[in-house]
Amino acid sequence: MLVLLVPAAIVVMAIGVALRLRSINQPSAGRYLSHPPGTLTFHKDVAPIVLDQCAYCHRPGQSAPFTLLNYADVKKRAKLVADVTGRRYMPPWLPEPRYGDFAGVRRLTEDQLGVIQQWVAEGAVEGNPADGPPTPRWPEGWQLGEPDLVVKMPEAYDLAAEGKDVYRNVVIPIPLSERRYVKAVEFQPGNPKVIHHAFITVDQTRESRRLAEKQNPPGFDGMELPETAIMVAGQMLGWQPGKQAEATGEGLSWPLEKNSDLVLQLHLHPTGKPEQVQSAVGFYFTNQRPAKTPFRLYLPVWRIDIPAGARDYAVENSYVLPVDVDVLRVSPHAHYIAKEMQGYAILPDGTKRWLLLIKDWDFNWQGDYRYAQPVFLPKGTKVAMHFTYDNSTNNLRNPNRPPQRIRYGLQTTDEMAELVYQVVPRNAEDLAVLRKDYFVKMTLQAVDYNEEVLRERPDDARAHAKLGQALLPLQ
């Protein structure tokens, strides 16, 4: 028996030692395990990361200010690359992991971050070019192929060299003689280095065109569009640097009516020299009618009044779903002094489900996020948003030095609080119920806000008009 037990004990000890050695040599969650000194090279270890995560924007003709396509490009800016990736400023991706499962995540892993840091610290060695991956080939022109219809600004917009950011709204007739169903939309910025973001809306009336024709060249400034300019059928149509075009999804095509106008809202950054912007939108059609129609569940807060110096000012809003829905996308929006954004759902049984968490909001990188799989929320779920703001000198993004009182408004020096969920009810009957119930909620919120404005500013003509507009359907 002793003869049999001794070999067995040796085997058990050997397995235990092996497992310990394996655990020592495996990176734990959230921890980078350094490679042996001097073994990391650009072509073997760093190029796969840079080409996959950075080069889509850092290449000729894109929004990034320089290219990162080869060793010379990266070596020249090695310390900068280590700094901005180490602070997670790049690649730009604001949502925190594990607070929503999103598609197309642009977030480096701890191992990728560690490789870059170690490689730069050890002198940014090039290595053997044969060890590197081939440079990706991106499609020239339209990412999704040649569109069925291209609607382009008829003339370029001249952006001044200096001054504040510009919100320019351009109205372009869409040449359709009949209704078509859209399966995808792609935006071509024309001058991506000056466009902060763009929104794509459609106006089936002539209201937007009437405003645009008052100016020469045609168009109008400002963040506020006519209420007739909408994102059709609950779509989230927009562009930000780095966003790739994609189809709406199976059964989610949407109707584009004849005699409609395309309304492009462009947020433009002056660069220090005169620039021209001539954007275009490509439409991709299908013969398949929509099987389901999304709904934009918009949760805004208009009562924003942030005292100078306030470090943790909070606002929130919520809505209880009257029907079952699937959540497809989420889009947050605020301006410079917003810090943390929470989006979550409280299920009927009291369980909290995270839909979005951004701990360090950056207005320069706003975007919308598609879930990797639709998120089912049953009837009776409370869908919520909770934003906090830092209006102190500790907030490096605060546009005011010293800090000043900031209220709700459309200018970037004002503040906003918006969280939009794109949801899909299970059928047309549920969509009608959701629309009616949500309309009542937003109408009452508009009444409450404008009454508050008029208590402070009784002569505010705009608030009187908005209050009357909100009260009319309640009569």
Short description:
The chain is globular.
Word description of this protein:
By secondary structure, the protein is α+β, with helices and mostly antiparallel strands. The protein has 4 domains: 29-131, no CATH class; 149-286, Jelly Rolls (Sandwich), CATH 2.60.120; 295-426, Jelly Rolls; 436-475. It contains 8 helices and 22 strands. The chain has helices at residues 2-24, 42-53, 71-76, 78-86, 110-121, 207-212, 428-456, 461-471, and strands at 149-152, 157-159, 166-173, 180-188, 195-203, 220-221, 229-230, 238-239, 254-256, 261-268, 275-277, 280-286, 295-300, 305-306, 313-320, 325-333, 338-346, 352-358, 369-377, 382-389, 406-407, 418-425. Strands 3, 5, 6, 7, 8 and 10 form a 6-stranded antiparallel sheet that branches. Strands 1-12-4-9 form a 4-stranded antiparallel sheet, with no helix packed on it. A hairpin with a 5-residue loop joins strand 17 (338-346) and strand 18 (352-358). The longest helix is centred in the last third of the chain and has 29 residues, at 428-456. It is globular. Mean pLDDT is 90; it is low at 1-29.
| Rounded Rg | 26 Å
Distance between the termini: 94 Å
**Biggest sheet: strands, sense, closure?**
6 strands, antiparallel
Q: What name is given to the CATH topology of the largest domain?
A: Jelly Rolls
Shape: globular
What is the count of DSSP helices, taking H or I runs of 4+ residues?
8
- CATH level-two architecture of the largest domain: Sandwich
Strand residue content = 25-35%
Fraction of residues in helix: 10-25%
- The CATH class of the largest domain turns out to be Mainly Beta
What is the number of strand segments? 22
Low-confidence stretches: 1-29
Structural class: alpha+beta
Mean pLDDT: 90
